Amino acid sequence: MDTTPLNDDDKQQAGPRTLRRGLLVLRALQEHSEVGLNITDLSRVTGLQRPTVYRLLAALVESGFARTVPASKRFKAVHAGTLRQHDEDPRIALALPVMQQLAATTGDAVFLVVRDGYESLSLWREIGPYPVQILATFAGKRQPLGVGSGGMALLAALDDAKVEQIIVHNNMELEQYGGMTTREMRQLVQNTRSRGYSVVGNYAVRGALGVGCALCDAKGDPRLAISVTAITERMPVARQREIAGLIRAGLSELMPVTC
After folding, report:
1. Is Transport included in the keywords of this UniProt record (predicted)?
2. Of 9, 33, 197, 212, which has the fewest Cβ atoms less than 10 A away?
């Protein structure tokens, strides 16, 4: 890896280069507005690497220029006059006031996560005022259910048969997340159930630790989860409990059934 510091000319060129790449991704989404594009499609169409596409999409979604397509892995451009995503998805509209309050109270990043089959899907994030933030995920990002604290809260709320089915299905992908194993995943599920909230660190993002709680419907099925993520040093056990209490209190305002 080239670690040579950027000179002034390089720094001046970096901004316009990123902007051009972002516009390239946005143009591709606009040209395929009927069905949208997934990460692989965007990488192929633009010629950009997948990690670069992820970063640019995160900025476009957060700024309201792109949105996820519900129940899919695709993204669409948001055209002028189109409602922002949190106006279109009732789950975001429902959870947004709670997320904003949590971000302001804790100072850390707050995430809204839902289950989509064997995966977790991040719908929204709110960034707190603390100067060091762990932006572990972004709106539209998917990962195996249970890897992050929000996804783990959702996974642990399912029955044993579904939990095992999901863990076995995701087995081959888990190693990409900090070397996680199926054994560790099962242990995290048990810990979450015993504790009443999830605590997951260093798997999705090194040096980060998240606390999450799930919201269930009247039948006990998890509908969404809210998590708070910070650098590990800001998450001693006492603060984990405190944050879990804040999340549960917020979720109780939405629906009186917290998993």
Report:
1. no
2. 9
Strand partners, 214: 225
* 3-state secondary structure (DSSP) of residue 144: strand
Contact 156, 178 (CB under 8 A): no
**CA-to-CA separations, 158 to 30, 33, 101, 216, 244, in angstroms, rounded:** 38, 36, 28, 10, 19
How far does the chain reach from its first CA to its final CA, in angstroms? 45
Residue 187 has pLDDT above 80, yes or no: yes
The number of angstroms, rounded, from the C-alpha of 196 to the middle of its chain's C-alpha atoms is 21
Q: Is residue 162 scored above 60 in pLDDT?
A: yes
Asked whether the predicted pLDDT for residue 203 surpasses 70, the reply is yes
Confirm if 73 and 36 have CB atoms less than 8 A apart.
no
The two structure tokens encoding residue 66: 């792109």
